[in-house]
Structure formats: C-alpha cells, structure tokens
From TrEMBL, chain A:
It comes from Guyanagaster necrorhizus. This is PIG-U-domain-containing protein. Pathway: Glycolipid biosynthesis; glycosylphosphatidylinositol-anchor biosynthesis. Residues 1-19 form the signal peptide. Keywords: Endoplasmic reticulum, GPI-anchor biosynthesis, Membrane, Signal, Transmembrane, Transmembrane helix. The keyword Transmembrane applies. It is a multi-pass membrane protein. One of its GO terms (biological process) is GPI anchor biosynthetic process.
Automatic annotation (TrEMBL), chain B:
GO terms for cellular component: GPI-anchor transamidase complex. Pfam families: Gaa1 (PF04114). The chain crosses the membrane at residues 415-440, 460-481, 493-514, 534-560, 572-593, 605-628. PANTHER family: GLYCOSYLPHOSPHATIDYLINOSITOL ANCHOR ATTACHMENT 1 PROTEIN. Keywords: Membrane, Transmembrane, Transmembrane helix. This is Gaa1-domain-containing protein. It comes from the Eukaryota. GO terms for biological process: attachment of GPI anchor to protein.
Length: 410, 629
C-alpha cells in the first residue's frame, strides 16, 4: 500500500470528483432513478421534476399529493438552474464534493491540525461509500440534505456560528427529521470539536451562549419559512412537506421501518402510532447529549446514526452518512466489540435489499414481506453499528484491558 | 454436602451452584460468558464438521424428504369443472393444417413463407394476425427469423388481460436440436379456429407461432413489452393486447404420445406459481385421461426397467427394490430440475415468459406409438384455458418456491433450503474462527495452561484489495470471453486461463506483513469464506439449485485450503489446482461456454457473468491463500 503521506489530497480529491462526474454522465441513472431504495417520495428526482413542471405551468404543485419537496428546491430549480440531466449531474457531483470536503474539514477541526495523512481516506470513504454513491447517481435529494448537514456540522466545528445555524435552518427546511440534530450542533457550537472521549468531564460550555444561538436559528427558520410561503403562495406546502414525514401519507416502500408498519395497521391506530414513531426519534436526543456532553461532535454523529435507522422515508443515504462518518473517529476502532458481525450484517443487508425488492416487484415470486424482512436485516445492521459505536465511545474512557482485571457495568 | 447423599441430590446441588453462584455477580457473569465462549470455541471443529456432513446429507436426501401432495390453492381456478367441446371435427382440422405444414417443411419454405402462411390461416379464421421479423446479432453471427401471431379480443371484457397459447417451430427435444414441432403448431392453429367460436373468454387470447426454438419468442416478448435489447433488431408489433397473465407452450414433436411431460423452470431460476401446474395435472389426469410426468421421465412403477441405473455389482435385491427405484426416479427429477435452474437456462420456450412475470409452462407430448393424439391434447388445453380464464387476479395463492419430486408431490422451501444454509453456516463459522485466530496470538509456552493472549493487527485493506482485484479480474475475463475473437481459435481459452497468473503476481508484490501482524493468508481465507457463505445463503432464495451447487462445489475446497506453510509446500501446485478448479471449464467444456455466452447475449441469462464475476474469483482467492502461506 502507498504510504498515505505521499498522496496529495488535492490530486486524489480531483480524481474522485472527475470519476464521479464521468459516471454520472453515463446513462446509469436511468436504471437507478426509479429505485425505491435510493429515493423516497420525499427525495425522488422524478417527483421534483413533476413539481417543477406543474409550478412552471401555473398549477400549485402542492395540491396534488405527489410533490413533497421543499419550496426552496422549487425556487432553486425554476430560477437559477433547470432540472436537466447535465445540470443535475453537475449539481449532485458538487453536493458530494461539498460533503466529502466538509468531512475532511471536520476531521481537521477535530484533531486541530492543518492537514494530515488521513485526509485522503476520509474523503475517499465519503465518495466511494455505495450507500452514498448510488442515491447520488439516482439524483435523490437526500444527497443534498447530507451535504447540507455536513456543512452545518463543519461550520459548527470551525466555530462559524452564523454559517452553521443558517445551514441548519436550511437542513430543517429540506427535511424535518433533522430537528434531531439541532441540540447537538448547538452544543457543538458552544464547546469544542476536539476529541474528549478518552477523558470524560462535565459540560464545559457556557449555557447562556446557546440561548443566543437558539434565537438566531429561530430567526433563520422563520425567514426561510416565510420565503417558502412566498414561493409557493400559501401554507399548503407545510402539510405536504413537513407534514409528510409526520403523517406518512405515501406508503411507497423504502429501506426504512415505517412504511410496512403503517401499511399493515388498522386506521384507527394510525394517529397514535404516528405519534409514537415521531416522538421515538426525539427521545434519543437528551440521553445521548447528556452522556456525551464532553464530546458534542460524537453525540451529533450518534444522532445521525439514529436518524439512519428510524427516520421516516429513509433512503440509503441516511445510514450511508453515518457509516462514512465513522472514519472521523479512528480512536474508537480498537474498542469495537463486534466489527466483523456488523460488517457481515451489512453485507447480507446490501445483497438482500435489492434481491428481495426484485423478487417482489419485478419477478413477482416474492411479496412485500420479503422486502420488509430485508429492511429488518438492514435495520439490525445499522443498529449493530450504532450500538457498537456507543459502546466503543464509552468504553474508550476506561482504557485498555489489563490482564487479571475485568470491566463490568454495575 | 455429605458424600453419601444420593446422586441426584449432588447433581442438583452442582447445577444450583452453577446457576446461582455466590460471590461477585459481575465476575461470575463474565466468567460464565468466557466459559461458554471457550466451550463453543473448543467444539468448533466438531460443530463445523457436523454442519458440513448434515448439509451434504440433507442435499442427498432431498429426493426422499417427506414432501406433501400437491393441491390447488386458488379457489377461482376450478380445474376440470367444465364440459369440453373439442371433438373429432377439430382433430380433422388439425390434421389438415398438419398436411399443409408438412408440405411447407418438404418444400423447404423459408421462415418468412411459413409465418406468412400461419398469419393467412389466422386471418381466414377471422382473427387479426400479423408477422414479426427479427434479427439477433451475437458474437456467433446474426440469426434471424419471422414470428406469426394473432390476437383474439375477448368478447366479454375490455382486453386488459391476455393469455398466450404458443408453439415454437423447433421442438424442445434435445434443447432445440432440430426436430420440428409440426403437430404443436397445427394444434395452435386448430385451437384458434375452435376457441374463436365460444363467447366465454374473459381474457384476450394471443396465439403465437414463434420461429426457431427460443429466439423467436424472445424477440416477440421483447417487442410485445416494449423492451429494447441492444442486439435485437425488430419492428414494432402491429397488434397488441393486454397484460399477459398466463401462457402455455405446446410441444408435440412426435406422431402420437403416451404421456404429457411438464417443463416449468423459467429463466434465471424463476418458477411459475404451482397452482397453474397443479390445475394442468388435475385436468390432464381426470378430464383428459392422459398421465402427466415431469420432463420426459416416466413413472418408476409403470416402467421399472428404466430405473435399473445402479451398477451391476450391487446385489439385485437392492437394485430391484421398488424403494430404490423410487429414489432414483425422484432423484432424476430433482437433478433435472437442478440442472435447468442452476444454469438459469429454463427448460423450454415457456421460460422466456417468466422474465415478464408471466406464469407459464410447456406441455410436452412424449413421443410414443400411442395411444393419444390431437383429440386428447386439444381437450386438455381447452380445459386448462377455461381454468386460467377464471382468474380474477394474477396467480399468487400457491407456492413460488418448491421442488417437485414427482408430479403429485412437492417440497416446500423450508424442507430443502436448510441443506445449503447448513453448509454456508459451516463456512461462515470456519471464516469467523479464522478471523479470531488471525486477531490473537499466544505468546510464551504453548503447553502451559496459562497462555498469554495478545492482540495483533489484521491487514484488512491488503486483503480487500486482493479480493476486489480478483473480482475485477473476473469482470475482465467475462468481457474477454464475451468476444468474437475468443471463439475463433482453441488457443484463446488457454490464453484467458493465463489470467489466473495475475493474482499470485499481484500477491507477491504486497509487502510482507510485519511479524507482529496477522498473516495475510489467514485473513484472506477468513474473509473469502465469509463472503462465499454470504453469497450462497442469499442465492438460496433466488435460485436454490445454483446455491446448492455452489455449496456442494465450494464448501469443502474453500474451507480446506492450507493456512500453515508446512502443509502447503508445493505452493504453485496448490494454486494451479485451484485455478484449474475455478477456470478449467474455459478449456474443458467449450460447448458450455459457447452456450452460456449465447444465452447471456440473447436471453439475458445471468449464469455466465455470475460464474465469471463471483464464483471463479472466489476459488482464485482460495488459491491465493495457498500462495501467501
């Protein structure tokens, strides 16, 4: 293997971007664009194009129940860009590049260094992760959301408060589930991104600062909401975009856990379980942020992992972001409990998902339960990865195992 | 506890102290866990062997497993509940068509002339008909032909759904070797004239007389479904109809027939819904009076002489035993099924329909001197069509995953799936134990009980690089094989075989691991086994026969590649053995390679690419393990 220090980041990065662009210019997207695993009704490029068409022809796209993208996308694609193939290829490649670049910057901020030999690996793991790569080739807007969330985290690591909060406000506009990330990112803003996992200590930031941040974020969100309302003309967009991830009107299959559950459910239980599923996402915020109060970046990372399992309208990008972010925390690797089991579960899941999807919808010999079973395997794999990261993040504080001593939990 | 207390009390006390020990609860928990893991670890070789043996025995036992009788699950089908009207007048019509077709054959009529004649005949019957020209260009050159088809719109419905009745010009005898399906074609023509007279059709009837063996139907189906295939040149169909739910393919090559054989395997291992097959069997047996067999294997009770297959040194009392013959009969059925399914080629023209989610099978009239002819086959097909006409939704109720051991008995997925899974679990356990072995090393005296375990680094990135490069090599090989030049001379396969020299050369250039790290070979073998196991266990659902073949062929060879240098002295010999095992087919069976390439190009059968890109590289990796030792 080449010694990493001899590989210049700029060269590898541009090579990765170039190859990424080349692949997206082929006709490969025709095979991927309809795939349920790569884009959900909330992130599908086809739905986006339909909405833009309706919008351009003077029809309210939110009146039909097909278009569930944020009005910000509408304004972006009707004024600045057009939703053509070439533009899309360029834009999605740009998003991937922004995401990879943000990862490198987060890595540098965490270690408080100007550059390191690991930069290349961090960038490559973002570019070459199939969970991120394929949705991006399918022009799923989840890639844009990933880039924006990484931007928010990066700015927070670099203490650029306003930029981070603005990115966060955009992120909430684009995908409501991301509210889960608000608390850890604000905590990250008032503490430091440098790794504290080895030496836990009480929260060191100033609480009073966070009030200002919350206020600033509220203003950004309000302004963006007003802008969205201006773009779409009325408030209907709120129930069609934000409301969709709370009320799950579209039960198109995806690799997440919601769709099958609510397909099978009797209607009179629906509101209750919708509440349960939505609140369930929120209950992770407090414990993770309290337990990892000394390392907010790690808390953010774990909450990204929670979103990657339990989010409504999941696409492969969401767990993909979590998996790629593992590359930011090499200090925990020796403390993983079952990395081979997690990898094998992921290997099984990545093979089962497309296979059972095909058995059900193309070949017709399987049924919805097959695909549902594979999404369960996928959720187990993601759960195993998350649990292992939590374990390793806590275990590292105790240090290496010494012969003759055992570590137990009281 | 006194020593004179009864045995059972002492045992109970021991169990009690095991279950509820005194002392630090956490410590005992840890100790218990360690003891459990150690116990499993100690017995792992035995467990692995047991799993392998159980898996292989289970596969062998598949023909004897207590399956269950077939039954019809979809109540709407109502097989055999109608009076059939097909009679001697229709048989006469079929005979007249046969006369014409035999004349066409004797005049050496071209595809186009034949198709034109069929279309004309359909039109004479008052059914809209047309022809379709097609050309497939493959590495073996172009092949073209002309299909004829007719669509009869249903008198009772808007034509949203359709059923297909088809016959190919070439019979499936010898997998399309050249015998003509003249009576099958005459049956389709006579059926068209006959079925048109009735008003109870709720689905459009589409009659297709396809050219060649498989190619014609592939061209017709692609055009019908609007699928563009880069190497197929054809015109759009003039006539269209609804969504096809079921299709029958009629194959009647002989003069008369004694049994109706059923061929049901589709492309890439898909099987039709069992309800369709069971309805046909039911109708044929009880309404038509013709016994049904699987493929062309007659029943062992009727024809015991045909199953005298065992070598003569086995005592006659064993050879002639009805149970042994029954096993051989079912074994032949299962093996035939496995051979079609594993290679993904399908067993007849019906196989092509499966690509488009259409349940279909071939009715094969087993050539014999009697007693059945047009009269029987017509009635059975009429009744079968009336049954499929009853469907209100696609066939879905019955099984899609099954193995028919004989026409009346089948195995559910739960009965045969564990066989391959057991082998794959054994491989996975082998891989995981090697993974653990690679990560830990004992220092100090080996014999002392107080071994000191230290962790060591596993060179995962190097190993992944080797694995990915062998699979990329597989892709390269596939492109080389899928090339015109490859089949020009006999040297090319040997040249492509030389590709196997690349992984060891590549492996040599990997810098030697530091002695504190785990050896490359152990980690490579661990990951290779884990990956192979995953591939096998996942393929079981898609194509059980392929997965079982992989389990049989790869299970032991991948697990026994030597990891200690003492046992692997002639490294290159070991590697060459693995390379021959993985890629020897390139040289040894050129016909198979030819067919696999042709099937991939025309029909999209996945077997060729899968073999090149997944299976062969897995074997090569096992070979590289021997080199790296």
């Amino acid at each position: 293997m080449k010694t990493p220090s001899t590989v210049p980041l700029g060269l590898v990065f541009s090579a990765l971007v170039a190859s990424r662009l080349l692949i997206s210019c082929t006709s490969i997207h025709e095979y991927l664009i309809h795939d349920h695993q790569l884009s959900s009704p909330l992130t599908s490029f086809l739905n986006l194009k339909e909405g833009i068409y309706l919008f351009n022809n003077g029809v309210d796209p939110y009146s039909g129940g097909v278009f569930r993208h944020s009005p910000l996308y509408l304004s972006l694609f009707t004024t600045i860009l057009s939703p053509s193939r070439i533009i899309a290829s360029l834009l999605w490649t740009l998003c991937d590049s922004i995401g990879a670049w943000s990862m490198v910057r987060i890595w540098r901020a965490r270690n408080n260094i100007v550059q390191s030999s690991r930069d290349v690996l961090v960038a490559a793991l973002y570019f070459l992760n199939p969970y991120l790569f394929l949705p991006s080739l399918a022009f799923s807007t989840s890639s844009i959301e990933n880039a924006v969330s990484l931007l928010a985290i990066m700015f927070a690591c670099e203490r650029r408060t306003s930029a981070s909060l603005l990115a966060l406000a955009f992120l909430v506009q684009l995908s409501l589930s991301s509210v889960v990330l608000i608390v850890p990112i604000i905590l990250l803003l008032i503490t430091s991104p440098i790794s504290q996992l080895v030496s836990p200590r009480p929260f060191s930031g100033k609480w009073t600062q966070s009030l200002g941040h919350v206020f600033e974020l509220a203003i950004y969100v309000l302004v963006l909401t007003l802008a969205s309302t201006l773009v779409s003309g009325d408030f209907l967009w709120i129930s069609q975009t934000w409301g969709a991830s709370l009320t799950l009107p579209d039960l198109t299959p995806n690799p997440g856990l919601w769709w099958y559950f609510f397909t099978e459910m009797f209607d009179h239980f629906r509101p209750f379980f919708l509440m349960v599923f939505s609140v369930h996402l929120l209950i992770y915020i407090a414990p993770i942020c309290i337990k990892f109060q000394y390392d907010s970046l790690y808390a953010t990372f774990l909450l990204v992992g929670v979103l990657g399992i339990f989010k409504a309208y999941l696409t492969l990008s969401d767990p993909g972001l979590f998996l790629s972010m593992i590359s930011l925390f090499p200090e925990i690797y020796p403390y993983f409990r079952h990395p081979i089991v997690t990898s094998l579960l992921h290997l099984h899941a990545t093979m089962l998902l497309p296979l059972f999807h095909r058995l059900w919808l193309t070949q017709g010999t399987g049924n919805a339960n097959f695909f549902y079973a594979s999404t369960l395997v996928f959720a187990c794999a993601n759960g195993a990865a998350l649990v292992d990261c939590v374990w390793a993040g806590l275990r590292i504080a105790i240090g290496e195992q010494v012969d003759g001593y055992a570590v137990t939990q009281e | 506890m006194s020593s004179d207390s009864p045995f059972w009390l002492r045992k109970l006390t021991a169990i009690n102290s095991r279950l509820f020990p005194r002392g630090d609860a956490n410590l005992t928990r840890l100790k218990r866990r360690q003891a459990l893991f150690a116990a499993i670890g100690r017995r792992l070789p035995l467990l692995r062997t047991l799993l392998f043996v159980a898996g292989y025995l289970w596969i062998l036992a598949i023909p004897t497993l207590p399956g269950q009788g077939t039954y019809i699950d979809e109540n709407a089908l109502l097989p055999g509940q109608v009076n059939t009207n097909w009679n001697w007048a229709e048989v006469h019509a079929a005979d007249r068509y046969l006369d014409h077709i035999e004349k066409l054959r004797d005049d050496n009529a071209t595809s186009e002339q034949r198709a034109k004649y069929f279309a004309e005949e359909f039109k004479k019957l008052g059914i809209p008909a047309s022809t379709q020209n097609y050309t497939f260009s493959t590495v073996f050159g172009d092949s073209s032909g002309t299909n004829a088809y007719a669509t009869m719109s249903a008198p009772r419905s808007p034509g949203v759904e359709a059923m297909v009745i088809s016959a190919s010009w070439l019979s499936r005898t010898g997998e399309g070797a050249g015998s003509l399906n003249l009576r099958g074609v005459s049956t389709v023509l006579a059926l068209a004239g006959f079925l048109r007279r009735y008003s109870f059709w709720a689905k459009d009837l589409v009659f297709v007389i396809s050219d060649d063996y498989l190619e014609g139907m592939q061209a017709w189906l692609s055009a019908y479904h609007g699928i563009s295939q880069s190497n197929l040149h054809t015109n759009d169909l003039d006539l269209s109809s609804g969504v096809i739910w079921t299709a029958l393919s009629i194959d009647y090559p002989g003069h008369s027939f004694s049994h109706l054989g059923m061929f049901h395997e589709g492309l890439n291992g898909r099987l039709p819904n069992q309800d369709l097959l069971n309805s046909f069997i039911h109708i044929s047996k009880y309404s038509g009076g013709v016994p049904v067999i699987l493929y062309d294997y007659v029943d062992h009770q009727e024809y015991p002489d045909q199953y005298d297959l065992l070598p003569s040194w086995i005592p006659a009392s064993v050879r002639q035993h009805p149970d042994v013959k029954g096993y051989l009969y079912r074994f032949k059925n299962v093996l035939r099924h496995g051979r079609y399914q594993a290679r993904g080629i399908g067993s007849g023209v019906h196989a092509l329909f499966h690509q488009f989610r259409i349940d279909a099978f071939t009715i094969f009239a087993l050539p014999a001197t009697g007693p059945h002819g047009f009269h029987a086959i017509g009635r059975i097909i009429e009744s079968t069509l009336r049954t499929t006409n009853n469907l209100l939704e696609r066939l879905h109720a019955s099984f899609f995953f099954y193995i028919l051991t004989d026409p009346d008995n089948f195995l559910k997925i739960g009965l045969y799936l564990p066989s391959a899974i057991l082998i794959s679990v054994a491989m996975m356990l082998t891989g995981l134990s090697l993974w653990v072995e690679a990560g830990w090393t004992t220092s100090g005296d080996k014999k002392s009980t107080d071994k000191k375990w230290t962790r060591r680094k596993r060179p995962i990135l190097h190993v992944l690089a080797i694995m990915i490069s062998t699979h990329l090599l597989g892709v390269t090989m596939f492109y080389l094989v899928n090339n015109k030049l490859f089949f020009r001379s006999r040297i090319c396969p040997v040249a492509v075989m030389l590709i196997t020299a690349v992984p060891p050369i590549y492996a040599i250039f990997i810098p030697a691991a530091s002695p504190s790290d785990a050896p490359l070979s152990v980690v490579l073998k661990a990951l290779n086994l884990c990956f192979a196991s995953t591939v096998i266990s996942i393929t079981t659902v898609l194509n059980f026969s392929l997965a079982a073949s992989m389990a049989i062929l790869l299970g032991i060879p991948l697990s026994v590649s030597p990891t200690s240098s003492r046992r692997a002295r002639p490294k290159t010999v070991y590697y060459i053995a693995y390379a021959l095992f993985g890629l020897g087919w390139l040289v040894l069976c050129p016909e198979g390679v030819r067919k696999a390439v042709l099937d991939w190009e025309t029909l999209g059968v996945w077997f060729g690419p899968f073999l090149c890109i997944v299976i062969a590289p897995l074997v090569l990796q096992a070979g590289v393990v021997c080199i790296l030792v």
